[in-house]
Inverse folding.
């Protein structure tokens, strides 16, 4: 999930015509994620990345139960 949101953020925020060279993404990553651009704002994408990161940290430290982590992330992102 994190990698998908990160890829969409990179594509959506890139102002260059050569997205692959500017962002370091492969042609396939750009091709398969270009249709997902525009559904979220840049702020929402950054918030989603932070939420996923904090949830992963919470799982590792024992603050968030692993069984509810995906539901927790989805509820906070959507």
């Amino acid at each position: 999930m994190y990698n998908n949101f990160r890829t969409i953020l990179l594509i959506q925020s890139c102002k260059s015509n050569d997205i692959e060279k500017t962002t370091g993404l492969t042609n396939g990553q750009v091709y398969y994620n270009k249709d997902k651009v525009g559904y979220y704002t840049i702020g929402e994408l950054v918030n989603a990345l932070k939420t996923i990161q904090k949830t992963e940290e919470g799982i590792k430290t024992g603050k968030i139960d692993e069984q509810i982590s995906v539901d927790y992330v989805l509820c906070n992102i959507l």
